[in-house]
Design a protein that fits this description.
Structural class: mainly beta
Radius of gyration: 13 Å
Strand content: 35-45%
Helix content: under 10%
Distance between the termini: 6 Å
Order of helices and strands: EEEEEE
Largest sheet: 3 strands, antiparallel
């Protein structure tokens, strides 16, 4: 179990059958790849134990192809 990661595409009224976003971590960073960067993305990372929001960012469409978020400073009990 690790931190909760919520990745949501900001979409105006339209249906998406699947969201082409993948995320992985090496324990120091979270790497997010979006193969269809056609809208803004809201990223929210919450603590595993408390549910507290540890990181939140709205990433503009132009920057959503590849995103790196440092988690090195997150409390160790939230990283597994």
């Amino acid at each position: 179990m690790g931190s909760g990661i919520a990745i949501k595409k900001k979409v105006n009224t339209r249906s998406l059958p699947s969201i082409p976003i993948t995320a992985c971590t090496d324990g120091q960073n979270i790497y997010i790849e979006n193969t269809s960067p056609d809208s803004d993305i809201q990223i929210t990372i919450t603590g595993n134990q408390t549910g507290e929001v540890m990181y939140e960012q709205l990433v503009p469409q132009a920057q959503t192809s590849y995103i790196i978020i440092s988690i090195a400073s997150f409390p160790s009990e939230n990283i597994h």
